[in-house]
Amino acid sequence: MSNQGGGATVAQIPTSFGHELRACLRCRLVKTYDQFRESGCENCQFFQMEEDHERVVDCTTPNFTGLISVADPTRSWAARWLRIGMFACFLLYLFLFSKREIILQQTERELL
After folding, report:
1. At 27, which CATH number?
2. pTM of the model
3. Which of 8, 28, 59, 107 has its CA 20 to 30 Å from the CA of residue 71?
């Protein structure tokens, strides 16, 4: 996590945008599994995900859709609207799908 001149905290940029992306369940921060395992979540350090596979799996999810990039959460109307103005800026998911919703979507597709 780094601090830009304006005081905004910046989270790691995902190193890949494939299937290995995961999102923090609390703050919505999106990074790769490896990044969460190496440095945890910049916003939710109390999860203590560093070097802990089980914590990364329990505290993050690959089931989300939509992304928003926020450069300055304190000045972004989108960050205020999403109520994420106090978190480290960078890439955040917009919608989280629960396992139940995913199963329902798959079932609907199979029926069509």
Report:
1. 3.30.40.210
2. 0.65
3. 59
Cα angle, residue 56 at apex, residues 59 and 99 outer, rounded to 5°: 55
3-state helix/strand/coil string of 17-61: CCCCEEEECCCCEEEEHHHHHHHCCCCCHHHCCCCCHHHHHHHEE
Range of the domain at 36: 2-111
Tens-binned pLDDT, residue by residue, of the chain (112 aa): 444 444 456 677 787 777 889 989 888 888 999 999 999 998 888 999 999 999 999 999 998 888 877 777 777 777 777 776 666 555 555 555 555 555 555 556 666 6
How many Å apart are CA 97 and CA 23, to the nearest integer? 11
Q: What are phi and psi of 2, to 5 degrees?
A: -125, 165
